[in-house]
Write a structure and sequence with these properties.
Blueprint: H1 5-24, E1 34-36, E2 42-43, H2 44-66, H3 78-89, H4 94-113, H5 117-121, E3 123-126, E4 130-133, H6 134-157
Antiparallel strand pairs: 1-2, 3-4
């Protein structure tokens, strides 16, 4: 199985660096560019705040599952959570969000690197994927950022 803890931790570290490099290369005017406007307007800065809150939330979720918990409640409202996290981080400057992202990603890499093959097979409820293995949840962490980064790159290049 190529999805060992070491492989997943390395992938998280590499994708985290790509993410941080993207944000570090932005010009001051880029930060307010609109990326999504479905229910609430999300700018590039909003997405960095989302990356931070998601990373911190997944750290808590994974620790719960590792401790024998079931993970996210079936009634967990992703959109409500995201909106509340946006309100909580509205005052945080973008440079501080980047520091927080790097710190949370470093914690995620360390946690994942410490997992055993048995840990990776533990199951719990993910807010988007439903009941699945911890290995699948970890992969979703970096895929989630990749999806949003694709959208961000389109916005910056427009």
């Amino acid at each position: 199985m190529s999805e060992t803890a070491a492989f997943l931790a390395e992938r998280l570290a590499a994708e985290g660096e790509k993410t941080a490099a993207f944000f570090e290369a932005l010009s001051p005017q880029d930060w307010q560019a609109l990326v999504y406007s479905e229910s609430e307007a999300w700018t590039i800065r909003s997405l960095l705040a989302h990356f931070v809150s998601a990373e911190q939330g997944f750290l808590n979720l994974f620790q719960d599952i590792l401790a024998g918990g079931f993970g996210a409640q079936e009634s967990f409202d992703i959109d409500g959570y995201n909106a509340e996290e946006q309100r909580k981080t509205a005052h945080v400057p973008s440079h501080e969000l980047l520091v927080q992202f790097r710190a949370a990603r470093a914690q995620m890499v360390a946690l994942v690197a410490s997992l055993t093959p048995e840990d990776l097979q533990k199951q719990g409820r993910h807010p988007f994927l439903g009941v699945t293995t911890l290995a699948e949840m970890v992969k979703m962490v970096y895929r989630h950022n990749q999806i949003h980064l694709r959208d961000l790159r389109k916005r910056v290049s427009d």
